[in-house]
Amino acid sequence: MTHSKESTRTGTLIWISGPVVKARISGPISVLEQVHVGEARLAGEVIGLNHGLATIQVYEETNGLRPGEPLCGTGAPLSVMLGPGLLANIYDGLQRPLAVIRDQQGIYLRHGSQAEALPSKKWNFTPRARAGDLVHPGSVLGVVPETQLIEHRVLIPIAVEGKLIDIARQGDYAVHDVLATVEDAGGARHPLTMVDRWAVRTERPVQERLEPSRPLITGQRVLDTFEPLAKGGTAAMPGPFGAGKTMLQQALVKWCDADVIIYVGCGERGNEMAEVVNEFQRLTDPSSGRPLMERTIFVANTSNMPVAAREASIYSATTIAEYYRDQGYAVALMADSTSRWAEALREISGRLEEMPTEEGFPAYLPSRIAAFYERAGRVRTLGGNEGSVTMVGSVSPPGGDFTEPVTQYTQRFTRAFWALDRALANARHYPAINWQTSYSLYVNTVAAWWAKETAPDWQALRSTAAQVLEQASRLDQLVQLVGAQALPERQRWILDAARLFKEGFLQQNVVHPIDAYCAPAKQVALLRLFVELYQVGQQVIESGTPLARIHQVLDIRRLVQIKETVPNDQVDQITQLLSELKARVNALVPAERKA
Amino acid sequence: MREYAGADRIEGPLVMAEGYGKAALGELVEVRSGNGARLGQVLTTGEDLVVTELWSETAGLHPHELLLRFRGETFHTVVSREMAGRVFDGLGRPRDGLPPPMAEARVDIHGAPLNPVARAYPQDLIETGISAIDGMNTVVRGQKLPIFSGSGLPHNELAAQIALQARIADESENFAVVFVALGVSHDTAAYFQQRFEESGLLARTAVFLNLADESPLERMVTPRVALSLAEFLAFERGYHVLVLMTDITNYAEALREISSRRNEVPGRKAYPGNLYSDLAEIFERSGRVGGRQGSVTQISILTMPGDDITHPVPDVTGYITEGQIVLSRALHRQGVYPPIDVLSSLSRLMKNGIGEHRTRADHPSLAAQLYASYARVQEVRAISVVIGETALTPTDRSYLEFGRAFETRFVAQPADQARSITQTLDTAWEILSLLPSSELTRIREADLHRHYLGKPEGQVKQ
């Protein structure tokens, strides 16, 4: 263990119970200060101070700690290190690079690792400001090609304002090299590097908040078309185990059109983390052909890693998201699962012997959840650019019961609600999003974009489809009583149409090479195909043509497989097919009349 | 090692000592009294109070007569390849009358989390020879997949069959079984030992027994000792290890008992709030490691109290494990063995273990179709109860026929039969061919041509 850190002894441990320890303090220390606990220098955070006693939550395994061991303050709150090299990295909840730790410590995570978050490599820095410029927090000092997908903009730190008195020339520099000096109004000089530090529990400031207006395209039809999410928006994804939350989250991480993606595996499975990381080494960005890893940051805190670090992981990830937002990027943060974070709060709260409320959660659970989702948004940054943080949190309700506190609070503080359903998952209807209980308050927000970019009648198409599904679910109940044979043909056609929507549109195969990502144009084409076939079929039935004749003309099996056979760049095929089929169905009418 | 004479209080399994302020959290403690030594660990430690939790009952102890020996480290266990073929108690001590095994290593039973980036993604199929598993819930090496069952269902038979048949496909490689009995009866433990013995598997099996009449407190330790051996064999010695635990519900109940004795705030159904984290510590000790040979696969039996899958124990487990095999009482009553309810079963790691180059190209869509069609069978059955079978459409009647065939020919199989993947997939096609091809919307055109045995439909008239 290294003992060379700048921190000094500020106390002595007197009580240890799981992830919570108490110390008698002997030096300056403040609430929320980051501390090193014990000889092993475990990472911790002061969560209470009372009469010379500090209460600390420890982010690492505390087995082996003894009373009498030292407590050392760092003088700063729990912070993350921001700068080039974050992308393509895999961190634990305290922003320690897991690959570096593996190289240092082997396959198991031992405690007390001190690895630095950013790699020590050199970056090619190009200045964007000149000596003599007046610089403000958030303005761009220079840029670094962090990956081929993302240009890293080195920003003036939030606390620095004044005249730039020197700046480095273009060249290769390490993150800690001093690149520029700013002299503030008081004459004090601030040397600047590529590194900024930010306390994870504090929101990074912005100039103003803007209304979200553009959709976050996920390539998942049921989401984009029926329950859309906007850039800068928030979505909750609750579902019982096995309903496909993680698969859907991972599909979003792969395909959504944000510039930078941060995926937080919070208290989830190690093997799944291994899978997604492994897959990202191979997958490429559809537009640039570069590895998806180049726009992605992973924060992995699996279920067997120390529980308190789950709590920190959510905040570390959010702060990193805001940092890229401030550079003018659209960032998406996917957290799987926020329930594990809430459970970590509950566990710590229990150790502190706080008064429990519903299901044992602490009374501050709703305010914590609200504050977390409030860090999402589309903003004008201090530097004057537009950036956004979109948040999608999955929720794992015990027993699949959506009335439990975490689901309820999350539903209140988010604006899109994607409810995953066990019955759909059991029938392998994926994504198992229940189109009746889910909703999105962003439909009107993003309608203008869809109308302009795809089809002017987008709203009408989607509401026709929604109506058909709604009518069909009512008819299904009737079928349970009287059988489908007893329904009039017009109603049986609604059931057929609903089947086309369900199997041909809503169901999507995340591992199918063509179907995994469905571009907006293809979504609309498919939607139109089924809507207009439904409408023309209805007219034909009204005019007395038997339903069986329509079935002879339409090959249902082939229709529902179009999503898997027609690639995104050949949408014309769908349009063509639609006009052929419409003609054939329409042709049934005169034939009938002639007969 | 430090000794401290005389505790101050005993409350249930907790021994409080007020004067000794230097114990480490989690430190192993030997508590000696006139009638022998007991083991426990430090639960909380402060400068004026140490709370030690014992792994055996405290009846007959008197606090002032105790001698507490603090061993200076957490509980460590010996691990070695010699342990295969041996029987141990819940704390890892021999219970077969033989001397302790030679140590190849001593390890902390709590282990340490595998670094997520050191893991290799599991994708090597384990052929269990059971159609409902291999065809629709394929297991891969490194997976953790519990069997959700109910009292009186044949989960023991199924688990033993998996262990025996999985090993057949594995003959050429280093293969070991770690069997862990958690609070089950002598009969159950004896059943497994006997099945393993008959098939010659016992020599490759390390058995850890904490039986129903033994201390539930010790039950905290047993899986951790067993998994320490499994990890050692897999990641240090290159074995493919199958860990078979029964019964997770007994383990969770022991956790609840301890939590209640510790006066912790109870959670759902009084299970402790850290049930998820505690079970995760156990289940997450499975997987594969990049650049190393072996694997740890966990198949655990979990009996759902009242057959309720939303009960906290199966619920929390389902969130941790990579799927579940669910047994159905209804199928069992119909005489179907194994009574696997495929619709509520799931293998999350299946997709990377099957398909072209692994099993067969048609496998993924075939499995998806079986699920979708069998889900439809449930709906049609519900309708036919109300309106009668004769009032159904011809298509719906074919679903009923498919459903019967699926249960009796695909799911059901003899307890000693190992079906090859090809047999399983071919049987699936035979049964699916009872449905009109227009219903097989998940199947690709090419696969339909190659494998579908039903009558072609002259439906599309151009």
Using brief descriptors, characterize the structure shown.
heterodimer, A: about 600 residues, alpha+beta, Elongation Factor Tu (Ef-tu), domain 3, OB fold (Dihydrolipoamide Acetyltransferase, E2P), Rossmann fold, 4 domains, ten-stranded mixed beta sheet, six-stranded antiparallel β-barrel, disordered N terminus, B: about 450 residues, alpha/beta, 3 domains, seven-stranded antiparallel beta sheet, 13 helices, about 30% helix, disordered C terminus
Shape of chain A: globular
State the helical fraction of chain A.
Answer: 25-40%
> In DSSP terms, counting alpha (H) and pi (I) runs of 4 or more, how many helices of chain B?
13
- What's the overall geometry of chain B? elongated
- Count of DSSP E strands of chain A? 26
DSSP E strands of chain B, number: 21
Q: Please compute the radius of gyration of chain B using only Cα atoms.
A: 25 Å
In CATH, the architecture of the largest domain in chain A is: 3-Layer(aba) Sandwich
Q: How would you describe what is shown here?
A:
The complex is a heterodimer of chains A (595) and B (462). Chain A has 595 residues and is α+β, with helices and mostly antiparallel strands. Chain A is built from 17 helices and 26 strands. Chain A folds into four domains: 8-78, Elongation Factor Tu (Ef-tu), domain 3; 116-198, Beta Barrel (OB fold (Dihydrolipoamide Acetyltransferase, E2P)); 208-441, P-loop containing nucleotide triphosphate hydrolases (Rossmann fold); 458-594, Bovine Mitochondrial F1-atpase, Atp Synthase Beta Chain, Chain D, domain 3 (Bovine Mitochondrial F1-ATPase, ATP Synthase Beta Chain, Chain D, domain3), CATH 1.10.1140. Chain A is 36% helix and 23% strand. In chain A, the strands form five sheets. In chain A, strands 8, 18, 19, 20, 21, 22, 23, 24, 25 and 26 form a ten-stranded mixed β-sheet that branches. In chain A, strands 1-2-5-4-3-6 form a six-stranded antiparallel beta barrel. In chain A, strands 12-11-9-14 form a four-stranded antiparallel β-sheet, with no helix packed on it. In chain A, strand 15 and strand 16 (189-192) form a beta hairpin. In chain A, helix 7 (365-374) runs parallel beside helix 8 (405-413) and helix 11 packs across helix 12 (489-506). The longest helix of chain A has 25 residues, at 458-482. In chain B, 32% of the residues lie in helices and 21% in strands. Chain B is built from 13 helices and 21 strands. Mean pLDDT of chain B is 92; it is low at 458-462. At the A-B interface, strand 1, helix 1, helix 4, helix 6 and helix 11 of A face strand 5, strand 11, helix 6, helix 7 and helix 10 of B. Strand 1 (8-17) of chain A pairs antiparallel with strand 5 of chain B, so a sheet runs across the interface.
